[in-house]
Amino acid sequence: MRTAFCGTTWFAVRVLESMLGGKYSPALVISPPPSRAGRGRSLTPTPVAEFAREGGMELLESADVNQGDVAAALAARSTDLVVVCAFGQLIGRELISSHRFLNVHPSLVPRWRGAAPIERALLAGDDETGVSVMELTEGLDDGPVLGVESVGMGSRETYATLADRLADSACAVVETVLAEISSGSAQASPQDESLVTYAEKIDPSERYLSPESSAVELDRRVRALGGRLGTYLMLGEGPEDRLGVVECVPVDRTSDASAAGRTGEVLGDGDDLLVICAEGLLRLIQVKPAGGRAMTVADYLRGRDAPLRVL
After folding, report:
1. Which of 172, 160, 89, 181 has its CA nearest to residue 132?
2. 3-state DSSP: the chain helix, strand, coil percent, rounded to 5?
3. Which residues lie closer than 8 Å to 304 by C-beta, 6 or more apart?
């Protein structure tokens, strides 16, 4: 069975790497072309493209996978099946009808179909998530499922820790599904449309930590978004007043006698900063001042007074 691979991100790199050297090692890797990134806005290849090039793999960089060059490249290599993981491009009807595609998605579909399944599972406080491998269809992550592996979520799970474990699961599920397809034993199960939820792309406004929300909700937001996209409080109206929050923990308001005050006030107590939220308190552990590096709250407070209020 001759395979190809479509992917973009580091998550996809993990799956691609797991396929190399085995019976289903891809004959072609497809990834988007370089884009401008970083402070210098230099052209930067995708992680998958960089990995493929360094490994001497056949690489096709395409801004639109539905253009004829991709179909021709797949046909030229007599491709039986294409594995798609964290690719970021919609694959159209014509290409799907000419080749079989498998979609690797980090959620237990039909829950969290769409762009940000890992983040949405964390934001919702789910107890478990997982990886699904399904037939790729024209719909959004709605194809019949060929393989799945559940992953439990810890109470202090972050995007980084969860995504890392999901990548391991993705590698295992892809290997199993490919073997079952090759042997003719694969069985596809339709998704229950009554259970569908959608993982919408993260909006920039979701990075803001409003004290009008509960401390539990804000803690989930930091764990889901803080390490990768960045979450922040506003201690004033200017850009210099933005305080990034890298790590925090919710505290029951009734458990801290010093927490008398109004929603939005920030209490400084030695090496502690406590934000009074609509429900509970948010204890800040690691922060990132505007234009500065991440640091502990103790380092942040050294030489400055605790802010009085969060906007």
Report:
1. 172
2. 30, 30, 40
3. none
Cis ω for the linkage preceding 47 (within 30 of 0): no
Residue (of 175, 157, 171, 291) closest to 227 by Cα position: 157
Q: Got the DSSP string for 6-31? A: EE-SHHHHHHHHHHTTSTT--SEEEE
| Both tokens assigned to 97 | 């009808």
Helical spans, DSSP H, in 212-289? 215-221
115-166 pLDDT, tens per residue?
A: 999 999 999 999 999 999 999 999 999 999 999 999 999 999 999 999 999 9
Strand pairing class (59-61; 128-135): unpaired
The structure tokens listed for 128 are: 């478990």
Query: Each residue of 269-302: pLDDT tens digit?
Result: 667 899 999 999 999 999 999 999 999 999 998 8
**Residue 93, SS3?**
helix
- Inter-residue long-range contacts of 16-24, CB under 8 Å, 24+ positions, other chains counted: 16/48, 16/51, 16/52, 16/85, 17/51, 18/171, 18/174, 18/175, 19/83, 19/174, 19/175, 19/178, 20/55, 22/175, 23/178, 23/182, 24/178, 24/182
287 within 8 A of 295, measured Cβ to Cβ: yes
Parallel/antiparallel/unpaired status of strands 272-276 and 281-289:
antiparallel
By the 8 A CB rule, do 15 and 177 touch? Answer: no
Contact (Cβ atoms closer than 8 angstroms) between residue 78 and residue 100:
no
- Domains in the chain with CATH codes: 3-199 (3.40.50.170), 204-301 (3.10.25.10)
Instruction: Determine contact, residues 28/52, Cβ cutoff 8 Å.
Output: no
Instruction: Collapse the DSSP code of 178 into the 3-class scheme (helix H, G, I; strand E, B; otherwise coil) and give the result.
Output: helix
Report residue 81 as tokens.
């099946």
One-letter amino acid identity for 67?
Q
User: How far does Cα 56 stand from its chain's mean position?
Assistant: 28
